[in-house]
Amino acid sequence: QVAASPRTSRTPPALRHMLEGVVLEIAMPRGSPPAILLGADRFWAHAAVLALLLAAVVVADVAVEEGKVSCGFARKESCEVCGSWGRAWCSGDCRWRHDKCITEAESFRGEEGEVDSRGFPFPPDTRSQKCKEVTDDFSNHTVSIIIPWLAETWEHMEATLKALVYFTPANLIEEIIFVSDGNADSREAALKAISDKVVVIALPTRHGLIRAKMKAVSIAKAPVLLFMESHCIVNRNWLPPLLQRVRENPRVLAMPQLDFIPATDFRVYYPATVGHWRYEWNMNLVFTNPGDFIKDDEVPYVSPGTSGGIFAMRKDWFQHLGLFDPYMLEWGGDHFELTMKVWRCGGVIEIVPCSRMGHLFREVVHRPYHVSEWQVVHNYARLAQVWIPDHLRIFYKVKPQAFVMWLGDLSEQLAKRDELKCKSMEWYLDNVDQELKWEADKTCLWTPNPAHYLMWCENKPPDGRSIVAKEMPPMEYLAAKQAARARAEQLREISEWQPGSEEHYDGIENSALPGPLYIKLLWILLLASAAGVGRTFWKRSRPSVDRCTKKTHDV
After folding, report:
1. At what angle do helices 517-541 and 13-24 cross, to 10 degrees?
2. Which helix (H) or strand (E) holds 175?
3. Of residues 403, 366, 232, 246, the one with CA closest to residue 312
4. What are the phi and psi torsion angles at 94 (to 5°)?
5. How confident is the model over 392-412, as pLDDT tens digits?
6. What is residue 294's DSSP assignment?
7. 361 sits in which H/E element
8. What span, in angstroms and rounded, lies between the C-alpha atoms of 469 and 444?
9. What's the CA gap between 100 and 98, in Å, rounded?
10. CA dihedral angle for residue 281, residue 286, residue 290, residue 294, rounded to 10 degrees
11. Which residue among 46, 116, 193, 447 has its CA within the 20 to 30 Å range from the CA of 392?
12. What CA–CA distance (Å, rounded) separates 136 from 172?
């Protein structure tokens, strides 16, 4: 009766129907798994099921009271009242931010009253509570911050710079280089009025994002390069964790965890979705987390790729790799070249969760400048010839327009690859991006164009994907990662290519049932019991709901 009560309730109809079935099915068969586990006397089996039923009803069937918020296990008039009991009571619909208890929606919005005094939307602290303040001496690892821009709004540029000045120790910044890529107004005077560390390069015509970065690198004075974009809000203590990784491994490309700022409201700031960057065979950048095995933690973890716009690395390492290909024009491809050269030529790419930065993510419709699709594909085709020559067949299947393009001279890039003694693409697929290897024979095109009939996808690609109709099963991914780690351990190279990642997702044993053998046996018995009870109850209650197994990620 409680479960099926017609009063205003949070209990979903399907759950109410299932609970009704539980009550009707309480006289379980003598041979069911709970009866076997708990003995011939079914009284204790019935008592256990009733206890679980009661717990489910108490948790799920909380009456909705108008004008009140949940503090967790109590409902009060406002989050402010919840917080008056102490930080521990600020849960449920509330979040503790900046020493006060506010609603979850408010916690994701900049502090409106403080925007005028600080000059930028003040972000919530999205770091894990396990993150510790890094107070090391980085006097030998100062940074040149490089920010190329084209047709950016002053609101975004001003907030980006003021947040940098506010949240970054001044002694760590050698200079902040803004590269105006052919803008009519370089805004030099306005930028230098905010910080005397600003240096402005004003290119008279548009050179493109890639060449704008190369121009800034050529004049950078600091030993560490920090690439950013002109629509970001850095967060608390964001720089020291990145410098810590660069100091520990001079060949690392270290990225902050990117929190989400929507293109339509620069004052809104959402915590990052956990995952890593990688590519499809058309060089499309994607953000994935197979099986949700990467956890929101404080430990830096490896990423198969980089977004290419926001990262830190040593200047001498950047120049040693010969970045970038000077014949890649305007926009597109620098992220893939970075990834191939860092991973395959002796380095590693990491995401550092304790370094947080809000980034305004734009769809094409919100991009303030034109990008030539032909030029992007041309850049990709040059990269394909140099870095995936043994897999060109796959690339041309999903980028057929690249097959007829004249690519120019590639001799310098091929010579640099050989000089660096870079590993093969097969090595990268086996040891770094197992998802990409799995997708090699599963590419397709989601297009109505009849010319590509033989390449049509059977189903619409998952969200964020473009050339595969399905994603790699989590257990296959785990098995591939385990095999890669075993190979690395055998070659004594694990500290070189996979530092700090074991705790996150690299081994099947990390996802196994906890405890020693006898504890695992108890887990197996418990799960078997639960499966038997669930099957019996489901047959009786038969809720008419769609069971959907697909999970999407909105980055």
Report:
1. 100
2. strand 173-181
3. 246
4. -115, 160
5. 999 999 999 999 999 999 999
6. S
7. strand 348-361
8. 7
9. 6
10. 130
11. 447
12. 11
Q: Of all residues in the chain, what percent carry a pLDDT higher than 90? A: 55
Contact present, 312 and 224 (Cβ < 8 Å): yes
Backbone angles phi, psi at 461, to 5 degrees: -60, 150
Tens digit of each residue's pLDDT (9 = 90 or more) over 525-539: 555 555 554 454 444
Q: Which two tokens stand for residue 545?
A: 């709901």
CB of 139 within 8 A of CB of 185? no
Residue matched to tokens 């108490």? 58
Contact 214, 144 (CB under 8 A): no
Type and span of the H or E element at 541:
helix 517-541
CA separation, residue 408 to residues 217, 350, 379, 385 (Å): 25, 33, 11, 11
Query: What residue type is assigned to position 545 of the chain?
Result: V
Identity of the amino acid at 304: P
Q: Which residues contact 123 (CB under 8 A, 6 or more apart)?
A: 110, 163, 233, 235, 259, 269, 358
Structure tokens at 257: 């965890």
Instruction: Determine the Cα–Cα distance for residues 203 and 180; give it in Å rounded to an integer.
Output: 6
The CA distance from 32 to 528, in Å, is 10
Q: Is 107 helix (H, G, I), strand (E, B) or coil?
A: helix
Q: Which residues pair with 96 in a beta bridge?
A: 101
CB-count burial class (<10 Å; 0-12, 13-18, 19+) for 467: buried
Distance separating alpha carbons of residues 92 and 70, to the nearest angstrom? 5
User: What are the pLDDT digits (tens) for 196-224?
Assistant: 999 999 999 999 999 999 999 999 999 99
Among residues 267, 328, 279, the alpha carbon closest in space to that of 306 is found at 279
Token code pair at residue 534: 């669930």
**Residue 369, Cβ neighbours under 10 Å: how many?**
15
The first and second tokens of residue 205, run together, are 């015509």
Cβ atoms of residues 302 and 433 within 8 Å: no
| Backbone dihedral angles phi then psi of residue 188, each to the nearest 5 degrees | -60, -45
* 176: helix, strand or coil: strand
- Look up residue 293 and give its two tokens: 């095995």
Chain-centroid distance, C-alpha 24: 46
Beta pairing class for 100-103 and 94-97:
antiparallel
pLDDT of residue 488: 81
Statement: residue 456 has pLDDT above 80: yes
pLDDT in tens, 166-189: 999 999 999 999 999 999 999 999
Nearest to 254 by CA among 278, 298, 224: 224
C-beta separation of 496 from 427 below 8 A: no
pLDDT at 30 over 70: no
List the one residue out of 84, 85, 102, 30 whose CA is nearest residue 93. 102
Q: Are 253 and 224 in contact (CB under 8 A)?
A: no
